[in-house]
## 1
Amino acid sequence: MGVIHVTDRAGQRHTLDAIEGWRVMEIIRDWGLPIEGLCGGACECATCHVFVAEEWMDKLFPPTEEEEDQLDTVVTKPSSRLSCQILWTPELDGLEVTLAPTGA
Amino acid sequence: MTDHIETDVVIIGAGPVGLFAVFELGLLDIKCHLIDILPKVGGQCAELYPEKPIYDIPGFPMVTGQGLVDNLMAQVEPFNPTFHLNEMVESLESIGTPEAPLFRVKTSENGTTFVCKSVIIAAGGGSFQPKKPPIDNIEAYEGTSVFYAVRKMEMFRNKKVLIVGGGDSALDWTVNLQPIAKRLTLLHRRDAFRAAPHTVEKMRSLVAAGDMDLHLGQVSALKGDNHVLEGAVIRKDDGSEHLVDCDVMLPFFGLTMKLGPIAEWGLNLHENLIPVDTEKFETNVPGIFAIGDINTYPGKLKLILSGFHEGALAAQKVHRYVYPEKKLLFQYTTSSTSLQKKLGVAA
């Protein structure tokens, strides 16, 4: 097993135990951090938007066209990803993400 | 004069769970009206994932979101429910007693008033509303310079309009408002658009002819005093920023779900969900029920199939409010001639 590091919207960094085969969104949600994940991981809502630390960007599978379409519905940075589309594997031990702000 | 409707039950939300409640109520001779903020029935199934396959609906190895909604519509057809689409329930007021509940329900858009004996809230994650981008101070401009929908095109005549987004709404309004705007700018995060190809092509030709501007990037700040927008700071992927001159900004970032007015109806809430019992799925207010994703109870699973079960049980209690004198006989659709008559399939 391993961990992921998640910085919440107040700037606090949390280290969470990760589970292989879980989506990063599910890990964050399971630990009770405020991530909405409205559509339940179907890549249909962009409410699990995170910023991935630069050094991790290349280690992830690139976003699908479907994920890009959803990212169109939020204010992104180059490091934007939907955490429901990142499947956690041991290669992602130590993954560093920041919860993106939510609109009103 | 606003419409006034008397009925047995008002169902708030016409998603799969609200639709199936119509069926369960119908079998018990209970009439209902459904209200939904979307212009179509089906809720999340129809709005968020119409094409996505669902694999955990009992009896359907695979059905799409829209397919499920279509089947449910066919299933409730014998009961002739009335739909009030494009309307949001604004207020829910108790005008009866705990023993004989009666409610007054009002919608916002054209102000329909309903008087009913029970209310079933099947509102899923709440009401669908335009997604507001997290830009500092954007609220200060809402309604004066920032709009999430176009109600009257004339409002934008001779204005410097900034449209943000890359979907159908953004592209449609780009080509529709370009002829009347003083100058139109479209801003999107990348040079790819998920809109109808001919609309994208039309936009590209307007850009090529110099009749409008296309920028790639994100709005990072808004400029202007006293709720009047003067410009938007655009940040590109490389971190560089520049100012776009505009009077009006129209962000089209799709829809999200918000609890909305439900929070003001005197119901107990727990983290934006409505606690219910698991016998009747009734809230803390007798006569108001909550079924589907919007409710919570120990062991709750947010599955469509749970919502179906919850609707069936809620209907049993609703029957006691609607027909206090009648004894409810439990029957099966396979064997009951009376149920089959209601379904229009009796031999």
## 2
Amino acid sequence: MTELIRFTAAQTASAIAKGEVSAVEVAQAHLDRIDAVDKKVNAFLHVDTEGALSAAKAVDEKRAKGEELGPLAGVPLALKDVFTTKGVPTTCGSKILEGWIPPYDATLTSRLKDAGVVILGKTNMDEFAMGSSTENSAYGPTGNPWDLTRIPGGSGGGSAAALAAFEAPLAIGTDTGGSIRQPGAVTGTVGVKPTYGAVSRFGLVAFSSSLDQGGPCARTVLDAALLHEAIAGHDPLDSTSIDAPVPAVVEAARMRDVRGMRIGVVKEFAGEGYQAGVMQRFNESVELLRELGAEVVEVSCPSFTLALPAYYLIAPSECSSNLARFDAMRYGLRVGDNGSRSAEEVTALTREAGFGPEVKRRIMLGTYALSSGYYDAYYGSAQKVRTLISRSFDEAFAAVDVLVSPTTPTTAFPIGERADDPMAMYLADLCTIPSNLAGNAAMSLPCGLAPEDNLPVGLQIIAPAMADDRLYRVGGAVEAALNDKWGHTLLEEAPAL
Amino acid sequence: MNLVSYEDALASYDPVMGLEVHVELGTKTKMFCGCSTELGAEPNSQTCPTCLGLPGSLPVVNAIGVESAVKIGLALNCEIAEWCRFARKNYFYPDMPKNFQTSQYDEPIAFNGYLDVQLEDGSTFRVEIERAHMEEDTGKSTHVGGATGRIHGAEYSLLDYNRAGIPLIEIVTKPIVGAGERAPEVAKAYVTELRELIRALGVSEARMDKGQMRCDVNLSLRPHGREKFGTRSETKNVNSLRSVERAARFEIQRHATVLTDGGTIIQETRHFHEEDGSTTSGRVKEEAEDYRYFPEPDLVPIAPSRAWVEELRAGLPELPRLRRARLQAEWGLSDKDMQSVLNAGAVEPIQETIAAGAPADQARKWWMGELARRANETGTELSEQPITPAQVARVAALVAEGKLNDKLARQVIEAVLAGEGEPDEVVEKRGLAVVSDDSALGAAVDQAIADNEAIAAKIRDGKVAAVGALVGAVMKATRGQADAARVKDLILEKLGVSA
């Protein structure tokens, strides 16, 4: 039974489809695992035991009736607590939403349910997805299963940790500046930020609307592709959703062939601040791609150095507006309503008590950046930088099929180390942010352990918008070659919990 | 405060006006979600995650809303943007579900237009249009327990989000200069013309009494000969045509009073009071409100294709001004008569009455006479009288059929206005039909002759004009229900005199 939790999603679905195991057994094995380890890991904010078992039962019944099962039917999944779930609490890691039970499902949530995916519960995250360590959660930090004293990345640390701790074979994250990829990198798991607009944002509680993108997290590239296919596709409820066929990602994940592909190494993502072991594993991966028959060239994108400051103007600006709705009037926390205070005072007291320091910092930054007299200098300039970054990508993709870089400059840092130094924290997303600003697709997959600390290193692959399949083609080939070389998957080296 | 007289104010100052009109579109669903816009539903029954601003919800643009905006823009002779975006207007208020209003900022869908309006003397005044843009309405607050009905001092407030997200078009004029003493009249004529236009386009009923059309009057004064505009006041939510005129007039006098006293006008919003036509200070704008506008990232840009815009232009209905010229010709009215019909707001009712089968002169007679008088007395709109054009047409038909005479018809109209039912019911219930039964009349005629033998004798002697007195007596005896012409004939017949 314990082996069930080590199955990939593809293996699990196949075993259920063949009747080798029931979906209920699979769900129960994962619920037991959560029970056993999550006190230590704190990946989940809410475990929906009843909902998970009933969804699993429905899959088993469907199978018993001989109905056709989807490619992920019965596979358990950990859902980032930023997607609404009808009847199941959704907090976004914030006190201000404590106790809120959404009356509706996000489009992504309904697609998962329709696919027969078993949602185990909601995972921990930096408050409103603002952070790179999950330390900004109002409900305590999540530990990195490789070393519980270290951060699992953020904001989607809960989803990544759930995968690495074998609490779920699949998870959902959202990536605004790296919140899927950076946790993937530091936990030795796979995370994909699809092209902006590929996965519906309806029901994704917004941090920065023009950057937020939901995406798949998994332990293998193929599993990520299967999940990608289940959640992507046009949604009339999201005006920014792409109305075009989803690229053939599953097929690409199975190709394992990069011969003739042109791969660009981003020159700017190296140097000061990059951990030696991270660069070592990254360079080995580049070498591996060459051995596999890809053509590797160096590419320069000078505008990428402006990405971080531009991001920290655009994202807070949008967040200051998106988070204005938390005013204690209709849902969530209400503080100070003693019958004599005005609505204005109650709103102020609630926001004071309900938001954590990082969220307040960004609301203030954004409010300032959008103020009249400052708008052009801040928000306006940042939008221009955004255009420059898109152009840099366009030029690069005219010469190469994909770009590669380390996902994050360092391996997982100790909990608390950067908590009081926002700038140091922001640097964790240095390599991931440009893709959010340009809206293209990117993946992080494990490429080894850094020799100096034995912690996972992530390889980032970046593809043009709507060419998400290239991520899976390159990622699938690298993963297969590395597993061959190691004789096992990287996660098998993770210590027992 | 003793106000400077209107004449004195105009002797020293030149008014500059800006009018901002919000029109609620008559779309079936809201601007950014599929909720119904039907008025009068149970509070908060027409809401969804999107119009409640629940976390995670997203807007989707109502295509009919955009089409209506383009139609309004075209009818106002505006340019239609080739590409424009929505913007977020950020401010906190409990009836704003998201604490930002999805609106348009520096990229309105329509801009640079004009509307020619007709003044009471028949002359035309051109009001230039700055822009028309799309936005969503807020929820509705009801403040309970305070003296003013406003949020300050209220014990509690009730929020109804049924209105939240209803599509609005905000139409903003350029500064209206050069209207002089006619500024208040121009304001009223503009709002009237705009209302007619909106109705003709079929995009809204534009009922001011139902809040479907709301007007803000911005006004400032400058001394004659000065270029620079003075500081303006913004009188919010002036909600009838008459009030628009009164608010402008009051503000002209108030500004002049302050300025003449050597005071300064502060930029502020003001509330208009229907009871006495005055305004009082609302919120003082110490510094310009900072709405932190930025392009709405949850929506994609609107790019109306030129072909589509031309298609809409070609499909525009006859515009009110042109329609009025046509109706004037059809009804055979002089300029002056047509102007009084317009001033009385009687075009629609008359037209509908004619459409319901009444002859043009009858339709005009009733609406411009009896009903206009009543509207005037009660200070209400002609179209708001509790009688329908169809009912007026029915009364006209009864007269034409000889079943009612003029006097009885007037009584029927009054009864309908009083809510006594349809014209035929009133005739029935009140027994108002003309007495046309000759035998019944004959008795009354005999009686009148018997009672007035002296007069009868005169008539027999050829003084036919004296018959009026006998007719009067018969009419009195039949409580006015007889056909006077028939009575006259009968009397003359009885007395053996030919008419």
## 3
Amino acid sequence: MGNLVSWARSPWGDSVLTHISWDLFWASLIGGLLFLVAHGGYMLFSQHHKRDSSEVDRMEADRKGLPANVLRHGFVARMFHWVMAFSMLTLLLTAFLPIVGVQFAWVQWHWMAGILLTASIMFHIVHATFVLDFWSIWVGPKDIPEFKAEMMREVGIDAPGPKPGKYPLGNRLYHLAVVVAGLSVIVTGILMMWRVRTGLVERNPYMLTDSTWGITYVVHGLMGVGFVGLVIAHIYFALRPEKLWVTKSMIFGTITRRQYLEHHDPDRWVAESKSGSNVG
Amino acid sequence: MPPIRDAMSAFELFQPASVGDALGILDRHGADAWVMAGGMDTFDWLKDRIKKPKVVVDLGMVDELRGIKDAAGGLEIGATTTLTTVANNPLVKERFPLLAEAALIVASPQIRNQGTVGGNISQDARCWYYRAGWPCYRAGGNICYADTPTAVNREHAIFNADRCVAVNPSDTAPALVALDAEFVIKRGSAERVVPAREFFIGPGIDITRLTVLQPGDLLTAIRIPATWAGKAHYFEKVRDRMVWDFALVNIAASLNMSGATISDARMVVNGVAAEPYRLDAVEAAIKGRPRDKATAEMAADLAVQGAVPLRHNAYKIPLVKALVKRAIRGEAEWATS
């Protein structure tokens, strides 16, 4: 960890962490971009394919009640996504533009965007717990068969294993990474509100010990630079041609009946029409 | 750990004889190099071993950085011109007595003989927590020790504090901002001219610097346009010790009068923020008004809007108000007390 974090000598003579090295920002940025190149190259040769069209025809015939457009993301979920995206991009830009040389008074914008992110995440937790299918986005041992089947399909073998439910495995793993990084930056960011003048809380820089503050700053920094790579990957996948139908569903809410059958397992994700009723 | 005084860490000393040589050295050594003009700020840092540069570039041998010359009715002042020279120069006194008065009141005669105008405006913050080597924001850490419930912060900022509450300590800086001066900065073969107001930066922009100067940059000259030559002016510095001290607050004002009416103005206070704090609202409000008590009262109230005092520096608010009143009325302390 030698040069990856900065240490300082506190007034009491203790060696304390202060923050991460900003070289890690560049590492995350370059890592994210290299991932794009590697994945883009890989996709040129990938054998991965969606469900065979004849099978989809048969499934479509078997499920006469399926609507032409299947609801993937309701209005509230879409609003949450875009509010979170706005706040996250604002947080990243306000945090890292000064590091790349674009200097401006960033702190106020940063903590305000952080408040927005925190509020949106709190809303999302409640919404996902009580309104959405909470477990559909999580990963666990039960997903091992799907993982095996997906790997087989990647190498061109039409594996019989389960298709994804509402969210593909990669999507769920990404969500898990975002949960870990997001909650870390939120918790540490809220603590850091006591270090700056916000008007929301009374400043108290001595609320934590120097050592604990150091860890707080380092965790905030590490997860922050981690988000650089995560967001690059997210935007990349959102813009890939074969994924645009998913991206459009985050704008318009629905996917077509055939997209639903081509990419998902109807038994694991029961389709809803735009009005919200279960069908099929 | 208490500072170790009078025992500097080893460094490589360069004494270039030209600006070109100096720029070449700065280019080669980048952030490892420390630019020294009069040494008045430098030696505090080096002897306390808070700063330990590998290379010191002494500008004392660069003649082309010294001197004052006419520039189309204005002046161009070399960055390493001493404060005594600036204060006593007939052209400065005739055209910009505001600057002459500010330079004359910096520190002590000995320091003015050695200290330079470029050094005076580029000097670092005087916050003692920072100067003591504590790992504060300005030193690259993550806390401001001066902005804590138990801090000693009588001399610190009341405006634009953004995590760090250190203030700009310069006397000549507010005068140069009030004169719409421009600073010539060279870097390698490139040259840029930065308005005085943009030369100074607050902690919101960069918490580790008071100016835009980056490693490799060299401030070579200060250009003062003719705009404010011969106009009404006011400078006053309030300090704890009249004989030799940094300003608690100082004020520099340039006023363009049309008869008895103020047609344009620049008002800048220092010692209240990390950069010379220009009173834009006051400047706008006093245009077209007479230089009288009513204008002064109105401007004084306007000047302190947005001030946020710390535990021990609320006195700066009435102090700023008083200085603004005096500047507008053109009356020195002894005339209104």
